Amino acid sequence: MCFLYSNVLMVHQLFALVFILLALLPIVTLIRKKTKSEIKYVRFWRGLIMAANISLLVALITGYLLFPELTSWKTWLAVLLVVALGGHLGIIAKSLKQYKTATDLSSKQKHLGKITYLGFGYIIVLIGILGMMSQWYAL
Fold it and tell me: Is the pLDDT of residue 26 over 60?
């Protein structure tokens, strides 16, 4: 049982790294917005968002395997935060798609502002999740 627990925990933490990588996107878009230049590698960021969506599902499954108590308020708070993270990912993905299809610079700058704003919201939710998970057994 201990061997299974450690493997599930390792998978849970490995897939969480995708969320950390995606936290760089709002910083990149903020820099690009300030310098009035375009984002490079939009396909990479969209692929990373898709990987983060898959990681959300893996995080929910492995999180349930690690802590299978559905009557705990901590479990439901974690689910709520994961849903909020997924919502941010969906809106950011839509904004990236609109950015890619935009033709004029002012429209692209508008979408960069939206991606930056939502991305920093994503970082706040991510910090909330990581803070809660680091104190999971202390709560």
Answer: yes
